Amino acid sequence: MNSNNQNRGMNNNPMSSIHTNNNYTMNTNNNNNNNNQSRPNYNNGMQMNNSMNRTNDQMLHESAFTNVAIMPINALSPNCSSWRIRAKIDSKAPIREWTKGDRTFINFFVILCDKDGHKIEGTFWSDAVQKFHGILEEGKVYEFSGGQIKAVNRQWAKTDHNCALSFDMNTNITEVQEEIETRLNLKTIDDLTEANGTVDMLLKVISHTPTQDINTRIGPKRIKKISAADITQKSIEIALWGEMADMMDEKTQFLNENCTIALMGAT
Fold it and tell me: Which fold, 5-34+183-266?
């Protein structure tokens, strides 16, 4: 891989996000200072919420694991017989439906982030899709329990975690009134030594192309390309696909030569 001109596509991760900021100064010290700022205390995981004070929107499902201590996401493994986590929905993908043979499948993905900045992918299946997709909101914090913990294939991993969560109708989710800030695990182009996993980056835009339609092996798709450089002045090409390409095309006026973009969860 040529570090001076690499391709970084975002088509494999429907929950990748990209943010623009024309006034951002690329200074890694700023990021370190932000990470060291004081944060709210989230160690009250054993405290039970009073369901009488919850609205219907806040109470998604009464947890069957209220006596299970809250675990950090990085402690989850297939060996956990029961578990409970408190995490923010960093991103939520649209519902996806497809047919294979005589069977129809439906699911959607979320990326969950806890107070320590650890992330894990969660997938909702079948009836759980209709139950939770319209209720769960990006940026809000929930307690999750009752799902299965499975090892992931690193080739398709959407986070750095070696496991992923699978949610069905036995899943228990309760909204909590907490705030968990998004923390970027920033990488430089020199750090992109593995093809698997995800990456957060701060980049300066060099140039970009209009969104266009191209033919792929799975049919026509829309693509937008952005050339950008990191703090080391090395360049990289970013490929935005589908809805994200259209979204960034609407923000073309912000993608000037001095614009700084933040990539979150790019693959």
Answer: OB fold (Dihydrolipoamide Acetyltransferase, E2P) (2.40.50)
| Residue 57 predicted with pLDDT over 50 | no
Determine the topology of domain 51-176 in CATH: OB fold (Dihydrolipoamide Acetyltransferase, E2P) (2.40.50)
**Residue that is written with structure tokens 């693509």 in the block:** 223
Sign for the CA dihedral angle at 237, 242, 248, 252 comes to positive
3-class secondary structure per residue, 125-161: ECHHHHHHCCCCCCCCEEEEECCEEEECCHHHCCCCC
How far apart are the C-alpha atoms of 46 and 51, rounded to whole Å?
A: 15
Where does the pLDDT of residue 7 fall: very low under 50, low under 70, confident under 90, or very high at 90 and above?
low
Average pLDDT over residues 232-240: 90
Q: Can you tell me whether residue 178 is helix, strand or coil?
A: coil
What are the boundaries of each domain within the chain? Answer: 5-34+183-266, 51-176
Question: Are 5-34+183-266 and 51-176 equal in CATH topology?
Answer: yes
CB 200 within 8 Å of CB 263:
yes
Mean pLDDT of the chain: 77
pTM: 0.60
46 vs 55, higher pLDDT: 55
Residue 240 burial (CB count, 10 A): 24
Burial of 218 (0-12, 13-18, 19+ CB in 10 A): exposed
